# Entry
Amino acid sequence: MGLFNLFSKSLVGVDLGSSAIKIIRGKISGKHFEIEDLFASPLPDGCISDRGIEDVSTVVGHLQSALDALKLKKPKVGTAIKGAGVLTKRIMMPKVPKKEIPQQVRWEAEQVFPMDMSNILISHLLLGEGKNVPLAPPGTPGWDVLLVGVQRDEAINYRDVLSQAGTRIEVMDLDVFSSSDLIESVMKISPKEVVATVDVGASGTRVGVRHRGNVVFVREFEIGGRAFTDAIAQTLGLSFADAEALKMTPDEGGIPQEAQDALSGVLATWKSELQQCEDIFVTQSESQLIERWVMHGGASMTPGLEEVLQDERFASKVQFIDPSAVFVSKSKSVDANVLAAWGPRLFAAAGLTTRGGK
# Structure
C-alpha cells in the first residue's frame, strides 16, 4: 500500500515519530515479524511535531548515529508520513477506464480537499467497484476510491532529511497504512472482517479501518501520550519527565489516585474521539459497523486506557496486541530488553520493510 515508491526487494524501515526514531530490518515469518536489526532512540522534544520535521539538523544527526550503530551504508529505506500534512477521503467516482483513473482522481481531489492543490501530492487506493455515483442516477456504477493527499513540502522535507543522513529513500507511505498492513499479516485477519487498527502514539492517535484487504477509512486526532502525561504533570505539579516516568512505571499500588483522576478526564475525551471515528465511518460505509478494535502504540499502555474501553460499545470488541507475540529475533545484535521496551511502537517501522515489491 505504498504511495510514492520505486520498487526494491529489501528495505530498511525508518519511522520518524514525534518522540523517537525507530529503524528496523526484518521480515514477516508466519504469525511473527523476525527482526534482524533494530535501533530505537528518543528524540529531543520539538524535533518532530504534528506539522512535520521542525529541527532538521538534530533529526539528521540522530539518523546518522543510528545508521552508524547498525553499520548500514546508504541503505534503501521506506518511511512514513503522519499528522496534519495527511489528507484522506473515501469517494465514489465515475467508472472511467482504468488508464484514466489517475487523471480523474486528481480532479476529484481538487473538489474535496479544501486547499491549493499545487502543494499536494495525490495518490489513491482503488478499493473496487461500487454504485451510486454522486450526481448520477441511483445505482450508477463507479469506482470506490480512497483519495490520499500529502503536503508536497512535508514530503520533500522527509526526503531531504533521509538523503542528508545518507539513505536512499525508495518508499514514502502513510504510517497508518504500514502498521495496519503488518497487523493484518501477522494476525491473519479475515478480509471479510471490519477491523480498526488504533495506534495510540505520543502526539496523537491514528485509526485505520480495514476491510477486504485494504484500509478504507483513516482518521487522526491529537490526543495521545503527551496529553495523558500533561494531565498528570499539571495535577500533581510535576515536571513532564517525572510525570512520564510515573505514568509508565507506576509502583505496585499503581499511580496516585489524583493522577488517575486527572487521566480519567482526558481518557474520556480520547474515547469520545474514538467513538466519533466509528460514527463517521458508518456514515461513509452504508452502515457497516467496526467488528474489532486492535490497539497498539506506546501510549496504549497508559494506566486506565484499557479500563475506559470496558463499556457496552467497546468491551467485547477491543484487543490489545502483545508485541512479544509479534516481534521475535534470533539476531545477537538485537538486545532483548530493547525489543521488549520498544515493541508496542515498532509496527509502522516493521511494516515499512515489506514495501519493497517483488
Summary: The chain has two domains: 4-85+152-352, 86-151. The first strand starts at residue 4 and ends at 5. The domain at 86-151 is CATH 3.30.1490.300 (Dna Ligase; domain 1).
